[in-house]
Amino acid sequence: MTGTAGAAGAPAVLDHLVYATPDLEATVAEVCELTGVRPVRGGSHPGRGTRNELLGLGGGAYFEIIGPDPEQPAPDGPRWFGVDALTGPRLVTWAVRVTGIAARVAAARARGYDPGDPVAMARRTPDGGRIAWQLTSPGEGLTPFLLDWGETPHPSRALPVVPLVSLGATHPEPAAARDELTALGVRWPGEPIAAGPAGQLTAVLEGRHGRVAFGRGAVAR
Length: 221
Fold this sequence. Notes:
There is one protein chain. The protein is mainly beta. Helix content is 15%, strand content 38%. The chain contains 3 helices and 13 strands, in the order E-H-E-E-E-E-H-E-E-E-E-H-E-E-E-E. It has helices spanning 24-35, 101-110, 174-184, and strands at 13-20, 40-45, 50-58, 61-68, 90-97, 119-124, 130-135, 145-148, 164-171, 194-195, 200-207, 210-215, 217-220. An 8-stranded mixed sheet has the order 2-3-4-1-5-8-7-6. The longest helix has 12 residues, at 24-35. Mean pLDDT is 91; it is low at 1-7.
């Protein structure tokens, strides 16, 4: 699950997959039932109106389940990952872990793709600690957002693992999608990109009861 080395430093690697939902509690219960593993509470994102729960994927990556946080007031703008418009859970995007995010952004712009300016974020962990990171604005679909954890220990360290078996995607123009990844210095970490609807991602995880596919909803296989 490694990426290509860019001019800005070490190779980009898969950091996490984002499974967004309009009902976090219900989706966490479903994921637990299907995989046989209980996700671990991550924390709230102050000002964003969301919170998350996490599962490890192996290889230093994780699976983020994110939805509205009922303990926060509604944010000033839309919640990230299109959460407000969802009618059910969906694997919406993925993140790659980089070092030197500002240089990565500059390198991508020089290659013709603008991932946006890095934004600093932080949250409290359930044990009272604090983690901080920088990321570019998340979109949806095949092109990942960049994430730099800086000195913060990676969240995957203490998570229960449900191994990632495969990652698939479709795009109307697979070659154009690969060009955007190349501009970011990233290699698609899954199966070959297939022609089809834009932004459809499917991750297959090896649960305790067998394999589970996460795309538009979750399905045991």
